[in-house]
Write a structure and sequence with these properties.
alpha/beta; 9 helices; globular
């Protein structure tokens, strides 16, 4: 058992409509003086994360948070303490952020260099800045066989024009019939090329030969493949800065995702779907409970559509994943 203090903190990821996030410098009389961080503070006994954050934001930067979305619960180990960081997205508030504790404030945009030119950033803040770069929708391919490629590429183009910026190439039925069919690889390369034309990223599902990940932006591990890697004490065969994702259905899968240091998790299925008629859906309450254990962004999958995005985020999802329903009017 660790003797280090365990501290629970509510952290506000205050986001402008343009996606910029608010950072503040720590006061001179506190630990890590002048280092930059996200606003927030300790959760008092019997205080909820949301209430603690609303209080802290009022005391620290004089805003009344009106929309607070649970996002990522992350454990960070400092040399002298362990801190449970409950990150929440704050997307609406009243008032103008104003420093009330002799700190400085600055808006950080995703296209900025990580150095604000003012001072160092606290280590626990860096993962957040990476997570914010992940899109809110994650589209899975649905080609099925060689004669479906043309139709898929047209649907994909439509999705990219609608703002999809993260895609997974996943063709289990096709791969089951012809695992290393060169036409599958050709379809993958066409998919990646089209994604890159629109500034989107494409991940390879691990049902396909993992060597093909070199043609993509990363690898998405099925839960069984993630479990096997952990059991064999192996790391995922990708080269950073490629993305690594893991599919999860229960707590053990989330632990495997953590052990493999995945960038994000896809959790489900949340709602009943025709593709899983004999498997019970998690439902939103169980999804929220599991998402809080992930320690990284979580996408909800199963019965998801643009209409469920807000509901998913209210239950701790970073975004939603799916096949057809993510493309509007398709």
């Amino acid at each position: 058992m660790s003797t280090k203090p365990y501290i629970r903190v509510a952290v506000g990821v205050v986001l402008r409509q343009d996606g910029a996030v608010l950072l503040g410098s720590r006061p001179a009389d506190k630990p890590w003086p002048h280092w930059w961080e996200l606003p927030g503070g300790k959760i008092e006994t019997d205080e909820s994360v949301e209430h603690a954050l609303i209080r802290e934001l009022k005391e620290e930067i004089n805003i009344e948070a009106t929309t607070v979305l649970p996002w990522v619960r992350y454990i960070h180990h400092y040399p002298r303490s362990t801190v449970e960081l409950n990150f929440c997205k704050v997307t609406a508030w009243q008032g103008t952020p104003t420093p009330l504790e002799s700190q400085q404030l600055a808006w950080y945009s995703q296209d900025q260099a990580i150095d604000l030119g003012i001072g160092p950033i606290l280590p626990a803040t860096f993962p957040v800045l990476d997570w914010l770069r992940l899109p809110s929708r994650y589209l899975l391919s649905a080609i099925h066989q060689a004669d479906g490629v043309t139709a898929w590429l047209e649907r994909l183009r439509q999705a990219l024009q609608q703002g999809i910026r993260l895609v997974q190439f996943r063709e289990p039925a096709w791969a089951a019939q012809h695992p290393e069919d060169p036409l599958i690889l050709e379809a993958l390369q066409q998919t990646v090329q089209l994604c890159h034309q629109y500034g989107a990223k494409c991940l390879l599902n691990s049902v396909h030969p993992w060597a093909w990940a070199q043609y993509t932006d990363g690898l998405h591990l099925r839960s069984s493949d993630a479990a096997r890697l952990v059991q064999q004490q192996q790391t995922a065969p990708i080269n950073k800065p490629q993305l690594l994702a893991v599919s999860a259905h229960h707590s053990a899968d989330l632990q495997h995702a953590d052990q493999l240091n995945s960038d994000f998790v896809v959790l489900g299925h949340v709602l009943a779907t025709p593709s899983h008629p004999d498997e019970p859906a998690l439902g939103w309450d169980q999804f929220a409970e599991l998402a809080a254990q992930a320690g990284r962004p979580v996408y909800a999958i199963g019965g998801q559509s643009p209409q469920t995005l807000t509901l998913a985020q209210q239950h701790g999802a970073h975004g939603i994943a799916g096949i057809r329903q993510l493309i509007e009017n398709s």
